[in-house]
Structure formats: C-alpha cells, structure tokens
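Reader question, answered in our methods column.
A reader sent in the components of a multi-part assembly and asked whether the whole thing could be modeled at once rather than chain by chain. We filled in our standard form and ran it. Here is what they sent:
COMPLEX SIZE: four components
ENTRIES:
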Amino acid sequence: MALPSVRRSVLVDDVIQRLRDEITSGRWPMGARIPTETALIAELGIARGTLREATRALIHAGLLQARQGDGTYVRATSELSGAIQRLDSELGEVLEVRQGLDAQAAGLAAARITPEALDRLDALLARRATAWRQRDRDAWILADHAFHQAVATGAGNSLLSDLYAALGPALRRSMTAHWDDHGFDGADPRGHEDLLDALRAGDAVRAARSATSNIDATGDWHGTSSPSRPGPG
Amino acid sequence: MALPSVRRSVLVDDVIQRLRDEITSGRWPMGARIPTETALIAELGIARGTLREATRALIHAGLLQARQGDGTYVRATSELSGAIQRLDSELGEVLEVRQGLDAQAAGLAAARITPEALDRLDALLARRATAWRQRDRDAWILADHAFHQAVATGAGNSLLSDLYAALGPALRRSMTAHWDDHGFDGADPRGHEDLLDALRAGDAVRAARSATSNIDATGDWHGTSSPSRPGPG
DNA sequence: AAACATAAAACGTCTGACCTTTAACGTCCA
DNA sequence: TGGACGTTAAAGGTCAGACGTTTTATGTTT
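And here is the structure of the entire assembly that came back:
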C-alpha cells in the first residue's frame, strides 16, 4: 500500500494549534495571563500532561512565559524572534542582514508608505535628534530602531516587518555594545532626513541607497558611505 | 525585596538545552533516530513527563520528528525554518525578502567568496542551464535555488545563510506555484552569468545589482530589470 | 502602619498505568 | 523458495493522581 497513511492527528498538536490561535488572533493579547492549567484542562477535556506538552512547546517557541506560583503569560505573537535569538549570531552578522533588509524595506516603502506613516517617521526622527543632543544613549537607540522598524512596516510586507522585528533584540544589543566601546564618538551624528525625503518623493532607488549609506559594518561596498566611520546609525 | 530572584532553573529547560546540544553538535546527525524515551529517562534521571515536555518543545520547533511506534528522528538543526513556515506568508512577500537578502549576499560574497565556491557556482549554473534546455521544471528550480543558496553561503555570514535556507521551502513553493501559472514562458531564460562574473571580479556593486536585476515581484524599482517580465530567476 | 505568619493558588515534577501504531519476526502455504 | 499473513515486542501517545515549590493574597500581630 502506498496510501501515505491517514495519520490521525496527534492530540497535542491540535492543542498547540488551538492555543496558538488564541494568541495570534489576539483573544489572548500580549502580556495577558492565560487561563490556568486547571481551567484549560476542563475546557479542552484533556489530561494535564497533554496540556503541559502543548504549553511547553509554545513556551520554548517564545510565545508564552510560565511563572511558577503565578501563571502563564503571553510573551510574543511570533516565533521568529525566539528562533533568531537562539542562533546567537555575531553582532556583525546581524548588522549585515539588517543592512540588506533596510535597503529592501526602504525601496518598497517608497512606493507604498502612507502619509500617516511618513508623519510618524518625522516624529521619530525628531526624537532621535533630541536624544542625540541630550546624549541619551538608550533613548537614541530606541528612537533609531523605532524609525527603522517603522520603515520596514511601511514597506507593506508583513514577513519583512516580522523579520525586522525579530532582529530587534539582537540589534539593540549590538548597538549597546558598540556604544560601550566607542561612546558617542563612534555613532553617526547624521539623521535619516535624506531617507525620509526620498520616501516622501517616492524615489525608491534613492531611498534604498540612503538606507544603507551610513550603516556599514563590513567595508563600504555600497560606495556612498564615508570610509572612515563605520558606525551604527 | 528587589533582588530579581535567583530563579533556580526549571528542569525541563535544562533537558531541552541538553537535547538541543546533541543535535547542534552533530552527535545526533540529521535524519538519525535519537535514543528512546526509556533510554533517555534512564540516562538523564528524570520522569517521563519531563522528558516528553522537552522533546515536544523541540518537535514543535522543527528540530525533531516523532513517529509513534517507531521512534524520534532529527529533522533539522535550526529552528528558523519552522518558525518562518509557521508565518505562512504570501508568495510575493517571500520573494521581496529574498530579493533583499540576495542583494546583500551578492555584495558581501564579492569580497569574501572563495575560488572553490566560485567553481561550485559555475557547476550549478551549468546544471541550471541544462535543466532549462530540457524543460525540467523541478531540476531547474532546484538548481536555481542551490545557486542562490551557494551565493548566500559564500557571503560568509551564517545568519544570512541560515535565513536564506529557512526561506528555502517557501521559495520553492513559490517557484512551483509561479510555474504552474505561467509555465516556462513566465520564467527567466537568462542565467546568472553576469552575477558570477561580478563575483569573480570582486565587484560588489555590480554583483548586488545583478542579483536583483531579474527578480521582481513588485514593480521594478531597481531600475535595471526589464519591465515586462516579472519572473523568478 | 509595618512586619510577620498563614493559607490558597499556580506551575513543576514524579509515578504508574493503559492505548495506538509501527516494525520485526516467524509461520504457513502456494 | 518466496511471498502472504498473523503475532508480538517496542516505541511513542494519553490519562490519572499525587506531591513539591513558588508566588500571591490574606489576615493577624505588634
């Protein structure tokens, strides 16, 4: 017989899917405490061990977080972040990937970003500049990353946006580390005004070039970056 | 008390880490059947439920695959692939992300790829051309993807390479779907000779441009692609 | 009002049993 | 001899109950 087996689904997988749906659908929002094991057992009509296997899978995936004596909470809505962090890549590698995504995001956003998103980018750029003037490291990193993330979101590609978000923690760590090594001298005083202009003009080529012009962790093969200062920005 | 709790590690997490190490270290190679639950219980000195929670986590992550009545097998060495597939992104989105990674990979590879890798690229290109002449869809898709993957690997960035590999299944599905819609007419008869030339010359800018010149699922903002034929290539 | 003791609730782990599926073995018959 | 078939052992899947550990809330005391 070559019939590839009906493969009656494994109960645990159904439960995982069920719990996952509650999270991705938003019925269990970020940060919320999900029902207790006892409650879920009763509602789903399964044994505790089966439920625990399901929740453990989602905990490992990064979607849930269990706290003994307290409860289980929604920690994320995508498994990408956890998976990427488990690779614990080197900082330079993360920056290189970010650069590729940045360029693509900028190019796509030039054609798709909405006026409202452009306004938000403007505000984020202002916050970034303020943090710079005040020499506020954490605020600057946060604003810079929020700007880039907003561009990625403006690209209208949820996979791209999710990927960028998943790289977020590693990127912030990278930024902080770089900062601790070089201080404010190592960072880029320039803003992203040029990129924002390009997005406003709908100029994809210029936007893509601008997005990568002042980040370069590996040698400046993009040709437009200043060779002497390879800093995050 | 503000002491953020010593948080004595949870046993299951230790077990997960232990199993994960066996996989990533290669002691349990791809496709191998891992020891039986009974054996692992004895070796680790834990209860069956605890072990099952650990294995279930890795099963959901895509590293393991359990088959009732048979055993548990190593299915992958990275969790990225499973996480990305669970997003079930639209085909166009995957192609856009691929485009960004392609450009970055090509640019980096121009500076880092080894002569041996270049030879391999040459061979893959030949295979790709042969498949095209013989109108062998599956062989063509396989060779094309292998070429791109080899470029990504040649970039000397393991995160980039892993990401590209993780997108593989979705990309192949995308290719196949595109093919079923358009047949050989929709595909790109051009090869990647220009890209290979650029890599050989160490010309990063040309390599990056060439990598994205003939893929375009979203409008040809890269400026060098022919506007009339948006096909995978 | 602050500090301490107590109890309840939630997740963590263990034990043992039984079910379902698969693979391997051995037997039987053409 | 070789294939078909039935048996059986082994592996993962599910259930049930018990007890441990941690956190939070409660309530009492000083």
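What stands out: The radius of gyration of chain B is 22 Å. The first helix of chain B runs from residue 11 to 24.
Send us your own complexes using the same form.
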